[in-house]
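A protein record pairs a chain with a discrete description of its three-dimensional fold. The following entry can be read in just this way:
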Amino acid sequence: MYLKKITIQKCSLWVIAGITILILSACSEDALDVSDTEAGFVSEAGNIQELSPLIAEAEEHPGDWLAHGRTWSEQRFSPLDSINRDTVNDLSLAWYIDLPDTRGQEASPIVVDGVMYTTAAWSVVYALDAASGKEIWRFDPEVDRSHAVDGCCDAVNRGVAWWDGTVMVGTLDGRLIALDAASGAELWSVLTVDLSQPYTITGAPRVAEGLVFIGNGGAEFGVRGYVTAYDIASGEQRWRFYTVPGNPADGFESEAMAMAAETWSGDWWALGGGGTAWDSIAYDPDLGLLYIGVGNGSPWNPNVRSDGEGDNLFLSSIVALDASSGEYVWHYQTTPGEGWDYTATQHMILADLVIEGELRKVIMQAPKNGFFYVLDRETGEFISAENIVPVTWADGIDPETGRPNIRPEAKYWETGEVALQSPGFLGGHNWHPMSYNPETGLVYLPAQEMSFPYSADDDFEVKSLAANLGVDTGVARLPDDPAVIAAVQEATRGHLAAWDPVAQQERWRVQFPGPWNGGVLSTAGGLVFQGTAAGFFKAYDASTGEELWETPSQTGIVAPPVTYEVDGEQYVTVMAGWGGIFPIITGPLSLSSGPIRNVGRILTYKLGGESSLPADNFIPAELPDLSALEIDEELAEQGFLVYDRYCGACHGAGAIGSGVIPDLRYSSLPASPEAWAAVVLEGAFADRGMVGFGSELNNDDAEAIRNYILTRHRFALSQLQLGTE
């Protein structure tokens, strides 16, 4: 069997009776391409070719983590309890792996029969022995790094799906690939998007009824969202559901699209409309319903998108579909006519709750808009909603209609004024998964307190190599005043909340200095696990929020932990690696939790673990000496405008990086206008993900940006000399 694009760590190989067995000791860090290798590997946990449990039987296999949220309910609760309040102090590192890329790590690993399947940045898939961390196989889809220009939020991937011996992954460049779980061999691959448009995939696929479901991203740039179902066995498309209507002249794909079109105005289809379903999907096997979370509008500004009119279905909605056919069943829109990037793509949890004496089948979500929602998952009926963070854009949710009471001053596209709103576009809760513990009745969620000044862009023009928001992001520019910067950092915070979904009240809170802390796991051991942006992995008492255990991770953690069991021992694993949109776009705010080293890692813990991380010998970079270079201040000011539109989304506000993508203030490239232009215009670093912008920018633009970067270097140098950088 030929294994396409597979690498296995270079090791000693023993061939016995025609079966290749990897002796996983004395392995080097180099990768070896392997061909003509028999499928099947023997791990310390057993033969992974044997028939494995089905997701429908997940409750009967508590030692596995079979689906993204362990079960189809997406509760991210484990009944394992060997690691508990009494034993957690004995938890220590069992094994770790350093990953090759220092980009964000957001995956939720799948663990089946002692084998862990996970992804790293750039959609690379790993199969590991879950007890030892030894690599079984690795699959690199060889994503063209230049495709990063189409991604709003780093080259991340949130994991694989597993179904009866098949592992599936969505890639940043829009492919859905099925792999043999035993060998990593590619079974089939389909392109799920039109590559002439700026689509991406960062979310994990979901599986049910022999189908694999995948959405996409790209609404910041201008696309039309949809979710597609493919046959797991063959890769053939079974159905596709668009989340927003297309051009009426082309006809509507369904009655649902015709209905949705009545809520739009103008030429909404010109920039796609948005509504990408880039993350959360849940499935109810009893109802046969698939729930998809739908994203923001494209552009954000409703005046540009839809003449400022209509609810714009199904933006910012939870939509229930018939899982087998993709037919529309019901929807609930969290933010009608949204104009603030308030997506409803955030984690959805299915549970049965007693509400006012009646057992209700509910779906719960805390979308970006700052409210926590409880809906009837059979009908979509609104049950309740309360804000989990300070909210200024609405005065609560009408209990009769379920619609937000939007404040007139929040509609910047109508007032023509700057509207400072909470939450900001990164939300009161972002993609980081929550967890529901049926024993405590609480939802544990990573919340964040952030604001953003929204202002309509009166000079908006569509660009193919930049985000198309229709808002003037330049109004968020911070002055070169350390006191102001420190004050804004202080106001940018995050916390772990224990939320009672029945009473719609917070029961306890753990406050953090900054936002963008990791996803959450809760267990029958009475524990809540979470990683932090400050570089720690922690365990809390699920009832009280008391911190019971912590360990340094030497890097920020944004991913959710999982737990599993091998040979009677319980393990807890988390992907570690600072990244995602908050670190790459917010500049000085990304340092709210303090400066952090960025290392991609898989960290696995057990009681009495005997491994340890290497010494943290992190040495901060030094600013190059560019003080002799002349700066054209007027040109630099023009450079800010170009930088803000084209560069800031990756290199950060104020050109301040946080260790994910190179900090341009520390680059020596601005010393040479020629070298600078070669990178910015000609794409000299395209193989690293930095494409050339010469199709939209010219030499004058490049020189203006260079002068702006020199002003940022000068300010950083002055702060360093004052001891405040």
